[in-house]
Amino acid sequence: MPDINKIRKELDEKNAEMEKKERERIKEEYERLSEQEKPTEEPITKEDISKSEKEQPIQIEDITDEFTPENVKAAENVKAAYEKGKFIEVKVKRSSGKIENDWVISKINPKTGEATVLKFTSEEGENRSFEDKIVTLEELKEWNKPETKESKEKKEKTEKKKEKLTKKDKNKTKEKSGEEKENLKKDLIEKYGDELEKIKQMPDDTKKLKKAKATRCFELIDHWKNLGYLDNYKGVLNTFSELNGLESSIFLYDLDKADIINDVCSAMAENYKKWDLKDKEKLKIIKGFVDKESKKRNIFYSKDKTDKTLKKIAETLALEDVPFKGNIDIIVENIENADIKSKTIETILEIENKPIGEKEELLERMEEDKTKEKMLSEEKIKKMGASEEIIEKLEDPKILSQLFTKGSKFLAEGSELLKDQKIQKKVQEVMDLIEKKGKEKIPDCVAEAAKLIKGEKKEGKKDGKESPWKTVFEGIGLLIVILIAMSILLGLKGNEILSGQATGKKKEKK
Amino acid sequence: MKQNFLNNLPPEIKDTTTQLYDTILERSLMRAYKDLDDGKKAMMTKIFDSGNEKERNDFLHNYLKNLENIMMEETKKIMVEIKKNKDTTEIQ
């Protein structure tokens, strides 16, 4: 038998020798080639490196796989500000190319150097909404470079140029479309005027006829309002006069009326520069319209709402670059509520300092908000008309919480309704009915539990913490009450409630 | 917001609101009480008769967890009653 250990040893020695020979061979070959090889290209210069960097932008991931002191410092700054309850404000470039103020840094990833930036799109509150974006620190640096004198001058020049161009373009378009506009004006005034004449001829002797007439008026105003400037709103205002004679003819007449008043006022302000009248005359018409409508009894159009309408008109005009003195101040001086008045003036001053581009953007956003608000109002109030719908909504906790948080308008209007004496009477009647239905005798422990939930103090106990149940059930309780009240009110016909006919009394048999 | 809403209510409607809320709460509690077995009912009587606030809160938390849902259901019932009453009135 061969000695296996001996064979292994021999093999190892052989391998070692072969490896040594191979290494030597490779070394020789390398040296030989190095001597033979002559450079075929020019040596790489610094310019080449910079050129290649320019051609192929460095990817963030390539250079930031490790924490860099700069990124760490930036992340720490953001964190420190956040701990103090602040955000670091920055300018951010939109995809449209526009650099915008009022963004804040939410966080910075110290490893990647990526920053999450936010822009709040609603007022401060529990459910504050915002839009967000992820950008790099490099980009932030670029967009937030301190303005030099030269760049400032350049920017101002560009803006002036842009403004000039816009005016020039507008004038050109105005001239060009002058004839077309005249024709359109004639056609539309004729068309809407005809419709108004037809409405005027409609009989309104019965409730049904009144309803049909009022519906046509609402529709006509809605169509006409955005082109009302063509006849300086004469037609729209005449339609309003017609509508004013048809109170309580349709379900939720006052609510629709309040909405359409706001819509017309917004349209008047948004199209302000298109009217063919002098500023003072336009303002007189707008002011007169709001004054007239505010004097009419409408639970959905209280004095506060009038002030808010005037605020909105004033702000829209400011965004359209209408001067404050001698113009917007005519609207502002009619705001009675001191708080609303001061806030309006404050906002106008802010608007006046904004560049034109930003004003245009704000105007656009205002238009979007108006559409959203209208959707909420219509969905949440009109749909509440049928009790079945409310029952459906009660089954969905998500909708309930939305109603309670986002639907403040719904609740506010509900509370306005409840202020009406006739409505209070109706609610009381329902309460009496519930009581009459037979109240079970409840055990003492249940009564005590109710007291605890409501946060009532135990007899003889003067102090003590507020019940942890109180907040939860008070919230839910209020919502329930409002929903019931709306169901009672909207389940009946609006005109009956408002005219006091729907008091639940039995109708006399004929 | 809740606070604002309450402040906006005139005193007359504030009373009605409280009354309506009390009715719903009592009805709901009564229903939850009826669903308890005899042992728990006795426990509730004992705790709400002589127990401290912590024991009371614990009892509500442990045995009447679904009170919010019951309140919603009771609300629906009241709304159906209202609707029935309205329909009867209109027919008459």
Task: Please describe what this structure looks like.
The complex is a heterodimer of chains A (510) and B (92). Chain A is mainly α and 510 residues long. Chain A contains 21 helices and four strands. Chain A is extended and about 125 Å long. Mean pLDDT of chain A is 69; it is low at 37-46, 48-65, 375-408, 459-464 and 489-510. The termini of chain A are far apart. Chain A folds into three domains: 60-146, no CATH class; 183-385, no CATH class; 388-499, no CATH class. A four-stranded antiparallel β-sheet of chain A has the order 1-2-3-4. Chain B is mostly helical. Chain B has one domain (27-91). In chain B, 88% of the residues lie in helices and 0% in strands. Chain B contains five helices and no strands. Chain B has helices spanning 2-8, 11-35, 38-50, 53-63, 67-91. The longest helix of chain B has 25 residues, at 11-35.
Task: Summarize this entry quickly.
Chain A is mainly α and 510 residues long.
Largest sheet features of chain A: 4 strands, antiparallel
| Class computed from helices, strands and strand pairing of chain B | mainly alpha
Specify the helix fraction band of chain A.
55-70%
Task: Encode the helix/strand succession of chain B as letters.
Answer: HHHHH
Shape of chain B: globular
Radius of gyration of chain A: 37 Å
Strand percentage of chain B lies at under 5%
Element-by-element helix/strand order of chain A: HHHHEEEEHHHHHHHHHHHHHHHHH
- Point out poorly predicted stretches of chain B: 1-10
| Count of DSSP-assigned helices of chain B | 5
